[in-house]
Design brief:
The protein has about 425 residues and is mostly helical. The chain has 15 helices and 3 strands.
Length: about 425
């Protein structure tokens, strides 16, 4: 809302009465119009012509175009192409872009995670500096064309350069998201771009994931304890090993954990496990604007059981598989753990130790009760063999599972 700005739309985009479009007759004219609209003089003129939020076509037609620009058309054309290229490259580093190919940190091909991030950070800084230089060159050309050298300077404030700045915490969260995408089969370390986004797990080709195998069923447990060998935390370790090798795993785990707000009393694995169990889904919901592609099945507040399911690999047997391969075994594992804690309590002579075990048992019993209730609901929905129609969108499909899923109200708008 601070400044008017203009962008290039590729074929296939729609526009509305609050986001107008102009249709130049050829590419060169398009590039000239785009750089013209985004220069400093036009930004000032838009405020003069109409200082409100909506800059309509009538005002656009009133903008004065400099006759001297013909002398600079080649330069303006070049600047436009370079600026579009920089912007496009930046946008495609986000997995919400349909031209996203791989994690930009991994693409640096550095020997470990820390060096990869540092290289990515430098690439960002270089791109920002180059865009600033091009914007200022563009401003200077138009200032000269208008003869306003005594009135305006070509300077562009850093905050107006909207390219990505490297951010250790956010970029680490994005790396975890990409790793989960590779686990789900959405992405692969062997091929760029989107690999699997069909429906019902049909035609899923496991051979396209050689370097880092995709999960067999598209169900990834996120639990606060290491109950399952294929849980997300364990697979993150496998992912880091697949990308940077076994020798750097410990250092990479530590760097990643420190990026995700590691606490003093935690191991790197503890931190990553805590992030996945308690924070990842909030970040995922924010990234996908409350239309998640990985769905969190959750037993409830006690966190007894949580698992992500990739909506494109969900099919009518997914819930039955979740129940028989994860929830039922977890009920047995929790019972065995409770027995071992009771035994430890009976054999302990330390009052402090007994108190600590009692607290653990109290929490565990709450989780057991929650898990038992969840198992009953899960069986009920599994028996229905619910199918998804992707054409209905996330909002409608997400609401088919009652309260088995987390954040139902945020996604569907209803409880």
């Amino acid at each position: 809302s601070a400044n008017n700005s203009f962008r290039k739309y590729d074929s296939g985009f729609l526009f509305s009465n609050t986001g107008h479009c102009a249709f130049p007759t050829d590419d060169d004219l398009e590039n000239i119009v785009l750089t013209y609209c985004n220069n400093k003089f036009v930004n000032i003129m838009t405020k003069v012509l109409n200082p409100t939020m909506h800059f309509h076509v009538g005002y656009f037609k009133l903008l004065p175009f400099p006759s001297k620009l013909e002398n600079y058309s080649e330069q303006v054309n070049r600047i436009s192409k370079e600026l579009i290229s920089l912007s496009k490259m930046d946008w495609n580093t986000y997995e919400t872009s349909w031209d996203f190919s791989e994690s930009p940190i991994i693409r640096t091909q550095q020997p470990n995670l820390e060096q990869a991030f540092n290289t990515w950070q430098q690439q960002n800084a270089d791109a920002v500096a180059e865009m600033k230089r091009l914007e200022e060159e563009n401003n200077k050309l138009f200032i000269d064309a208008y003869g306003l050298q005594d009135e305006l300077t070509p300077d562009v404030p850093d905050k107006q350069i909207t390219l990505t700045r490297a951010d250790r915490e956010k970029d680490s969260q994005r790396l975890v998201s990409y790793a989960l995408g590779c686990m789900m089969g959405r992405y692969s370390l062997d091929e760029p771009g989107l690999i699997y986004a069909h429906a019902g797990n049909q035609d899923f080709d496991a051979s396209r994931y050689q370097t880092f195998p995709a999960d067999a069923d598209g169900i990834i447990p996120l639990t606060e304890m290491h109950w399952f060998e294929d849980d997300a935390t364990h697979r993150i370790q496998e992912f880091l090993t697949a990308v940077w090798g076994k020798d750097t795993l410990e250092a990479n785990m530590l760097w990643l954990a420190e990026s995700l707000d590691k606490k003093a009393n935690e191991t790197a694995e503890d931190t990553i496990r805590r992030y996945l169990a308690s924070k990842f889904y909030k970040d995922h919901m924010q990234t996908y604007k409350k239309r998640p592609i990985y769905w969190l099945f959750s037993s409830g507040k006690q966190g007894a059981f949580q698992a992500l399911v990739y909506l494109h690999r969900y099919n009518e047997s997914t819930l039955a598989r979740m129940r028989t391969e994860y929830v039922m075994p977890l009920i047995s594992k929790m019972a065995a753990y409770a027995n071992s804690l009771e035994t430890a309590k009976e054999s302990s002579d330390s009052a402090a130790e007994i108190k600590r075990i009692e607290k653990k048992l109290q929490d565990l019993h709450k989780q057991q009760a929650e898990l038992s209730s969840f198992e009953e609901k899960l069986r009920h929905y599994a028996d229905q063999r619910i199918s998804l129609d992707l054409d209905d969108g996330v909002k409608v499909n997400y609401g088919k599972f009652g309260d088995l899923l987390a954040e139902v109200k945020a996604v569907t708008g209803e409880k």
